[in-house]
Amino acid sequence: MKKLMWLFALGTFLAAGVYSVISLNRWEWSRALYFGLVVLVAEVGLATGLVLRKLDQQAEADTDAGERDEIRDVLRGSRVSRDRFRWLAPERAASRSNVFITMVVSGGILLSGLAWLLDKVAANTTTSLQEGRLAGDLTRIAYPSDGLLPDEVTVLAQQLPDLDDPQLRMLLGSDR
Amino acid sequence: MRSPARIMVALVAVALIAGGVWQLRSATMSTHVVTDPDSRLAVTLDAEARQSEPGQSLDEMVAAKVGTCRLEVATSDPVGPLERGSDGRFRLILQPSLDDTDRVQFRGCMEDWNVDHLLVDVVEMREVADRG
After folding, report:
1. Which of residues 77-106 of B touch A (CB under 8 A)?
2. Which residues pair with B126 in a beta bridge?
3. Which of A86, A91, B66, B89 is deepest in the core (most CB within 10 A)?
4. Chain A: residue nearest B26 by CA?
5. Given a cut of 80, is residue A15 above it in pLDDT?
6. Min CA distance, A21 vs chain B (Å)?
7. pLDDT tens-digit readout, A58-93
8. Greater model confidence, A96 or B27
9. In which band, very low, low, confident or very high, does the pLDDT at B132 lie, cut at 50, 70 and 90?
10. Residue ranges with strand state E in chain B
């Protein structure tokens, strides 16, 4: 297809050029101008195609150049190593403290994160409803508001002869 | 270093271009001679109009072109009207006749694309006898 386009452009250029000369020879100025314009258009197209083809060839030549490859290898060799886990390699066993420190620090960070997560979960386990229920349960076993000392009525009741309440006696200390 | 074959090809190309330019110069150079005032030139035209404007007839288009091209050679006047024969061809007579350069110019002008939608072919240009 590309070759066909080249042939078409070249044929147009040559044919228009020939007809332009023939028209000039016949004193047909309008025809000569028209064909001259076609020659100009074809010439610009051909020149553009030639320049683009030359640029492509130059780019390919640059890619294949051995000297360019050598320079590229040097540039690649001068890069900083990207082996970020080299410190884990066995040949670097003499400096394993790096690993220990790293593990301790990392472990601390992980444990702190885990503790923070547990704290957050635990904080969300109590709700206002549960707190109300707990308050009710605690009310039942709470100390009486007026204290644990017997009142006067109870003390007087102790004097009753038929009273035999061991709990009351224990409370008043009369068992001893 | 260029090869001798390429140098030869370049030289031949330059010679051809130079020869062509020289020939073109000779062909387009006006060299006029005085013609006999009583000489007459009969011109036969074959004309065709394509997609012309409405209201324009082929006759008036050819007449306009003849008028334009007569000014190109500038010396001859048409004798009599522009006639259209039974074969559809147009005929006119110029007096005095045209020299070789003017004939080439007149033919070139008539066959050129200087009137839209009109193509004219000069079929014949020949000397005719004087009126007397």
Report:
1. 104-105
2. B42
3. B66
4. A25
5. yes
6. 8
7. 887 776 667 777 777 888 888 777 777 776 777 766
8. B27
9. very low
10. 40-49, 77-84, 90-95, 118-128
pTM reported for the whole predicted model: 0.54
Which residue range forms the structural domain that includes residue A6? Answer: 2-69
Q: Give the C-alpha separation, B116 to B130, whole Å.
A: 35
Task: Give pLDDT tens digits for B89-108.
Answer: 999 998 888 888 899 999 99
Ordered structural domains, chain B, with CATH: 40-128 (3.30.70.3400)
How many domains does chain A fold into? 1
- Using an 8 Å Cβ cutoff, are A87 and A95 in contact? yes
Other beta carbons less than 10 A from residue A65's beta carbon: 12
CA distance to partner chain B, nearest, from residue A82 (Å):
51
Q: Find the CB nearest A27 among B20, B109, B113.
A: B109
Q: How many inter-chain contacts (A to B, CB under 8 Å) are there?
A: 33
Residue tagged 């195609």 (tokens): A49
SS3 category, A89 = coil
What pLDDT does B70 receive? 86
Given a cut of 70, whether residue A97 has pLDDT beyond it is no
Q: Which residue of A lies nearest to B101 if distances are taken between CA atoms?
A: A27
Question: For residue B88, which amino acid is it?
Answer: G
List chain B residues with CB under 8 Å of A31: 112-113
Interface check for A26 against chain B (CB to CB < 8 A): the answer is yes
Q: Name the least confident of A96-105, B28-37, B83-92.
A: A96-105
How far does the CA of residue A68 sit from the closest CA of chain B (Å)? Answer: 27
